[in-house]
Amino acid sequence: MSSYAAGDSGLKAAMLELADTTEINAFVVDVKDDYGTITYATDVPMANELGLVEKSLIKDIDAFVETLSEHGVIPIARVVCFKD
């Protein structure tokens, strides 16, 4: 699941509906992209100092994870470490 989809209520609802009606039980969610951007609000000083936080994508990561849990979906964080 892209961070854009995780932060968009319509796309997120569609993905959750898919999980509710199929055997899907986990989402791999982009939380750090290949440019080093963190896709949710964080208090990590270095990330904020370097301007690497895009708070508008996943606005409330805790609420997002809770919603996934309510639907029986296991969240898997995708963190890009190296860009080829």
In brief:
With 84 residues, this protein is an alpha/beta fold.
Q: Please, could you describe this protein's structure?
A:
- This protein is an alpha/beta fold and about 80 residues long.
- The strands form 2 sheets. Strands 1-4 form a two-stranded parallel sheet. Strands 2-3 form a two-stranded parallel ribbon.
- Helix 3 links the parallel strand 2 and strand 3.
Main attributes of the structure:
84 residues; alpha/beta; two-stranded parallel ribbon; 39% helix
Fold topology:
Elements: H1 3-7, H2 9-21, E1 26-32, E2 38-40, H3 45-49, E3 53-58, H4 61-70, E4 74-79
Parallel strand pairs: 1-4, 2-3
- The strand count comes to 4
The largest sheet, given as strand count, sense and whether it forms a barrel, is:
2 strands, parallel
Separation of the first and last Cα atoms: 21 Å
Given the C-alpha coordinates, what overall shape results? elongated
Based on helices, strands and strand pairing, what is the structural class? alpha/beta
